[in-house]
Amino acid sequence: QVQLQESGPGLVKPSETLSLTCIVSGGSITDHYWNWIRQPPGKGLEWIGYVYDSGSTKYHPSLKSRVIISLDKARDQFSLKVNSVTAADTAVYYCARGVVGGEFDLWGRGTLVSVSS
Amino acid sequence: QSVLTQPPSVSAAPGQKVTISCSGSSSNIGSKAVCWYQQLPGTAPQLLIYDNNKRPSGIPDRFSASKSGTSATLGISGLQTGDEADYYCATWDTSLSAGVFGGGTKLTVL
């Protein structure tokens, strides 16, 4: 059974880079869209972007200038980097598997990242 | 402000039926499939409905959904206290070229 697990620092200083990794276990990392989605405390879900099996990426326009999502097939994981973070980037970050129809059929448990000095 | 509009909250008694609306535009719901997610308190979202009205394996048929034009609706019948959660609609927006979510609807089972 495929599982996703986020990992990374829970605290990042303002203006620095937020880095998270999602490990895909129990299945192949090929043939899917690998997404990052975040949820600020007490608020709704926001799609950040995806990396596809081929390595191609797509990002939300509001974050595009600050975000990089990459895929490491050899290690069955994909990563998120958000640079120049502010308090507004404080959120629970989820990794999620996307399928051709567009839905996210598998989610990680999420990891809280706080931006504070 | 979310691209997709949902009511902030809905409520109903156990055993009753409730519907949650999701309103969009021609660049999202009007041209793309809609899915719905259930987020129980303190947990990650779970796929509830995909491709407008299809249920993944394991989702009971108490959950149903439909789409018409630029709006979609989630229905939950035979409400149980365990259905108390936040519900989100989602789709792709061709103008933004981005995934979009509704603001979420909190369901209270009275």
Question: What's the structural blueprint in terms of helices and strands?
Answer:
The complex is a heterodimer of chains A (117) and B (110).
Chain A: E1 3-7, E2 11-12, E3 18-25, E4 33-39, E5 46-52, E6 57-59, E7 67-72, E8 77-82, E9 91-98, E10 104-107, E11 111-115
Parallel strand pairs in A: 2-11
Antiparallel strand pairs in A: 1-3, 3-8, 4-5, 4-9, 5-6, 7-8, 9-10, 9-11
Chain B: E1 9-12, E2 18-23, E3 35-39, E4 46-49, E5 63-68, E6 71-76, E7 85-93, E8 98-101, E9 105-109
Parallel strand pairs in B: 1-9
Antiparallel strand pairs in B: 2-6, 3-4, 3-7, 5-6, 7-8, 7-9
Name the features.
heterodimer, A: 117 residues, mainly beta, four-stranded antiparallel beta sheet, globular, B: 110 residues, three-stranded antiparallel beta sheet, 45% strand
Description of the structure:
The complex is a heterodimer of chains A (117) and B (110). In chain A, 0% of the residues lie in helices and 52% in strands. Chain A has strands spanning 3-7, 11-12, 18-25, 33-39, 46-52, 57-59, 67-72, 77-82, 91-98, 104-107, 111-115. In chain A, strands 2, 4, 5, 6, 9, 10 and 11 form a seven-stranded mixed beta sheet that branches. A four-stranded antiparallel beta sheet of chain A has the order 1-3-8-7, with no helix packed on it. The radius of gyration of chain A is 13 Å and the shape is globular. Chain A starts with a strand and ends with a strand. The model of chain A has no long low-confidence stretch (mean pLDDT 95). Chain B is an all-beta fold and 110 residues long. Chain B contains no helices and nine strands. In chain B, the strands form two sheets. In chain B, strands 1, 3, 4, 7, 8 and 9 form a six-stranded mixed beta sheet that branches. A three-stranded antiparallel beta sheet of chain B has the order 2-6-5, with no helix packed on it. In chain B, a hairpin with a 6-residue loop joins strand 3 (35-39) and strand 4 (46-49). Chain B is globular and about 40 Å long. The A-B interface holds A 35, 37, 44-47, 50, 58-61, 94, 101-105, 107-110 and B 2, 32-33, 35, 37, 43-47, 50-51, 56, 88, 90-92, 96-104.
